[in-house]
UniProtKB/TrEMBL annotation:
CDD domains: MFS_YcxA_like. The chain crosses the membrane at residues 27-52, 64-84, 96-116, 122-142, 154-177, 183-205, 248-266, 286-305, 317-335, 341-362, 374-393, 405-424. It is a multi-pass membrane protein. Residues 29-429 form the Major facilitator superfamily (MFS) profile domain. InterPro entries: MFS (IPR011701), MFS_dom (IPR020846), MFS_trans_sf (IPR036259), Proton-linked_MCT (IPR050327). Its main location: membrane. This is MFS transporter. The keyword Transmembrane applies. It comes from Streptomyces virginiae.
Amino acid sequence: MTQTAPAPGTAPSRTRPPRRTGRVHRAWSVAAVTFVTIIGAAGFASLPGLLIEPLHEEFDWSRGTIGVAVSVNLALYGITAPFAAALMDRFGIRRVVALALAVIACGAVATVWMTAPWQLVLCWGVLVGLGSGSMALAFAATVTGRWFTARRGLVTGILTAAGASGQLVFLPLLAWLVDRHGWRPATVTVAVAALAVVPFVWLLLRDHPADVGLAPYGGTYAPKPAPAPGAARRALKVLADAARTGPFWLLAGTFAICGASTNGLVRTHFVPAAHDHGMPVTAAAGLLAVIGVFDVAGTVASGWFTDRFESRRLLAVYYALRGISLLFLPILLAPSVRPPLIFFIVFYGLDWVATVPPTIALCREHYGDDGAIVFGWVLASHQIGAAVVAFLGGLARDLTGSYDVVWYASGALCAVAALMAMVIRRRPPGGAAEPTGGTRHA
């Protein structure tokens, strides 16, 4: 297609036509930087489950008390996401993510000097929660939506898998540090990792294809839109409009159960639960890292499936299989790692965040250009579900001396999520997106 020349006096970043080049499209390098950033962010999410026992032993804080800080962290991680997506529209991806990394580093380092539970809530709960929430999956959805038209499902799967890759990189190291040197060096390691990612973000990440005169990968050139004022107002307006539609509540409900059965339960409580059965902490952390290995394969495959199959059916299958696996976990935990537990780790790992690509696809399908912000609110429900179970899991352990009831309850909730996914109605091909507060496409 012939590109028209920009009108005289027009800003180049918004009107110049895309350059023709035989090199690899710039979108892939942007995706690579995003991948590295999310890997760094995974270090922050890997640590809470390793802190429960050390903090309990050093300060004599109950697991429920520690769980409050983890719950605040998880809740803010989700609640921040839609506002961060809107702020990226207003100030740009680079500025928001770089500031978020600095906030995380400050919060992680400050925990070294804490002496009271409220300080844990402030540093790890509030500061790290706000910072990591700004680099949540809404960040991946924003990058994918701007830079890719083709292969969106696959790229979403790859970026989602970055979290699992980061878990694989950081979890064994952090577990070794906690076991050999205590929890403080582990928190400092997280802070250093956050700061190390900042130069990559600032130098290599770009906010929009038009900044470098390109069209999105697989798409046609479009000028860079003007910064959207009123980021907080826009995020709330999109929520208010989306909340009037049925698909939003079904997606939010299923994703809340997703968070409850992954971040809130397994990521937070698997290590202490395995330790209750006599398994060494390093061995249990190693199993979580193995989950990360298979999560990479499962999530990338899910992105590929999302480009080819109906998203709501994929969600139903994923939730049903996850629920079945959780029902068997209480009888698999033992002092040593046995083949049935390894089978669970592989099976559960393939399903860990496979729900993300079809959920993002459904948000984009039903809400058009506001899909990233809507997904941010859906992600908030994910983290609220995770926060509730992170607290209730610790409370159940304190009251009953066992995590069994939490595993069984999560398995049952996953069955409910599978049914909810099938209820989400399909949008007819070419039909209008659900009405929201921002711009839309058919």
